[in-house]
User: What shape does this take?
Amino acid sequence: MTVAQFFGCGMLAFGPPVAMFAITIATDPIRTIMLVASAFFWLLALLFSSILYCAVVQLQDTIVFGLVFSVLFQELFRFLWFLLIQKAEGGLKKVSDGNVQIVENKHILAYVSGLGFGIISGAFSLVNVLADMTGPGTVGLKGDPANFFVASAVTSLAFTLLHIFWGVLFFNALHRRAYLQLAYVILCHLLASGITLMNPMYGLTIPTVWVLTVLSGGLALVVAGGSHTTLAAACRPRQPPILRVPTPQLTSQDTAL
Amino acid sequence: MAATCVRPSPLTMFWCYCFYITTFLTLVHGDRVMNKIYVDIQGDMACFKRFNGTHEIGCTSGFYGNSGVIHVIQNQSDLQWVYDKGPHKPYVLAIPPQFLTPQVLKQAEDSGKVSGIVVMVEENFNPQVLGEFSGESHCPNSELDLYKASFPEYSGYCEKNPWNPDGTSFLFMSWNFPVFLVDNQTSIDYIKQYYEDFNKPDVNGEPQPWPLLCMELNSNMFGTTNTEVCMRRSNLAGSQLHHVNFCDPLSDRNILAALNPMNASVELPEKSVTVVAARMDATSMFDNISPGANSAVSGLVTLLVAADALNRHKDAKVESSTKNILFVLFQGESWDYIGSSRMVWDMARGEFPFKYQENLSDQMSQINLTHIEHFIELNQVGEGMRATDSLLFLHTDPVSNSDPQISSETKKLLTLLQTSSSVANSSVTLEEVNAKIPLPPASFQSFLKKENISGTVITDHKEGFKNQFYQSIFDDYKNVKYEADGGASDRYHKHISHVASALATTLYTILTDEVKPITVNETLADTLLYCYMQNISCEMFRKFGEKISPSFFNEKPAKMYVSVGENNGLTYLTEKILAGLVGEKVDLDSDSCKVTSRYSVYQLFYSASIDNGTCFQSTVRGTVAQSPAFSIEGYDWQSGEYSTWTESGWQMTGLMIYLKPSVGEEVGLVCGGVVSVLLSLGVVYFMNSRADIIFGLPTPPAAC
Assistant: This one.
């Protein structure tokens, strides 16, 4: 009967990214292509991490080693992806069919890339767990935490969101040469991944990861031009568009009249 | 998730790695999540379905298996708790063997709260605490009894004086839930420990909350109803789709060996062959366990040891004798005399051991019922051991002995057996049973149905069986009090040897009319007993069975169940061992030591592991042991003339345990998921539509 767990956890973890994809990405072919391409870059990072892991046999038992290098590879490939789209900007302009928004607003591309990274990493971390949920049983027989499935789904969602925010922050940092921001992204990624080594202490790891998510989200909002005032403004009903009729210039003659 | 990363293949490596990247699991080398959820329990001993012409017996699970909350039963009050109080139905009952009775299972079935039963036999379990436990009925094989139809004065004997007083007929009942036997201590410990942790009601008898320990039992049987229906379905489906086995006839091979070669070129005189028979099959309710220590192995080993002894004492007088001995091991006798009825059917239509081959000089001669002089059957001789000697009983058939000629022949045979026993100094007392008492269930009955033959059935019981566990899982080496310790203090193998010695001495006299004590090889008896009853992967079996797949050899008692098909490893092994015992070594290498024709008087068998390669030449051969019912065109399945037993097909049987979460938790999780989806749709839609305000983007140009 634990098909219920499968659907519950699946919707919990993949609901938000799927909603983002459906509403903001799927409507635009360029964005879709960019999302898939960035996801491919994340996969490349995974491939290189795995090669390294295979090569360094003596450190295979040290998870921290694998973790740190995997994080560094991901950030490296995020950088390479950034370089690639910088080069490709001209071409992108040509194919964007007059819709120059994606080229002019750098944050849109950063968001699309981040979502690509997020979806693929979320999928890779959770799909195996999801596959095992479909049977009749749940975790806990051998003393493992009973809330393993929910914890996995919640953590996976946090990492998906984190990847989006890191994407925005990382690209912004490179554009503005704000190296402090760059350092924040890398350190935040290391910290968030590192803290999960404490699992199954979910009481510690999940709040930490989510605090980092909210913090990164706030920063991403700010660098993308938002603030609490713009959010507040957005919450008010939209003003009907004001038609600006050019006011006729008053001449001295008229005033004289 | 992500398989263990200890020795990763590139692919598992890849998965492993993904795992580290988001790092969800604990610090351990995480194996698949599945391994954290499910624990496999030994599940190879399932109760399965069998059919005869009119009925189905045994158990089956649903197609996707049966599952339920485990309740370990220690005493009657635990059962009552399940029926009266247990709120979490369906339950899977984990019972000790004491509770494996028709009453308990009937109650479980009627309660509607039980979806499966697991019988846990712990290592230190003592079967002596059990009451009636034999799976057979009071009158085994009574449907095909010699006396059933024709001799009313004897047919009622068994009902008044049951041959199998401990019989429960359990084997012949049909249950609507799966039943499994578990004897692996680790598996039993898992069940008991997790039951304590999760399911055991508290001191006030209140049930535990979810999550609860559950078990899934998988033993779906393909066949239903009865042999007629099931064979018809197999034939219909088989023509369109391959490999649909709803059911298959129980069948295997009988084994026979003639002491002196029987060549078709020399005419076989009437009444010249003494048949020495034993059966080599036993059965139980469960798959993969049918030790049959007394019901099958005792007679089988006695026959093998006697055949070996007689062969070693084969002198010129024996070889020139006009008489002959035919050793026969019957298969499938537990299931309405499959092997013996087939042999008799073949003999009656003149096709035994095979159809006569024209233009073939080297072939074994045809044997039919009139060639048989005596019939000596060894049937359950294991529990005849007394403090210092052995006591066995000689049963005879009152019907055929009403013929004076047969009667005098029988008398002569019985007297010969008794005197030979003292000649052989074997300390076996052979006591004649009242001649008015009909024969106990025995292969001999199949022969007497067609022809009056003098003969006797040697058993350890005068009236009811001494074997308390006839056709059950506890008819093992402990039941016959065998102690395998190199034979030093063991008396059982000596008992078997003495019986074999008395038998061999008798046979020698039958052949030569001379009296000569025949000594037997006691070490051989001990080895054979050990191999059959305790460890089939013993050295002797491995040597003779070098061509059998290695998976056959585990350190368990032999499975004596007849099973289906004709490639039963144990029958092959027994045939080859008999060939090794009564055959002679010939100087042929592995290439030339090949059987050229299955009709030849001599059959060849090569073993590379005996003395660096040995070729045995013997008269040992197998003949088909399948009920004639399956060979007779348009046989009436309800007629009750021949055995109609078939066994259902099935895929795999298995048991696993796991924790099942509460429904509330599951509903909560799904609701959480739905909320997550709706909330994110709302937020994303909002932010997307107000992106210009939130992020101060230029207003998108209005659509033209």
Remarks:
- The longest helix of chain B spans residues 663-689.
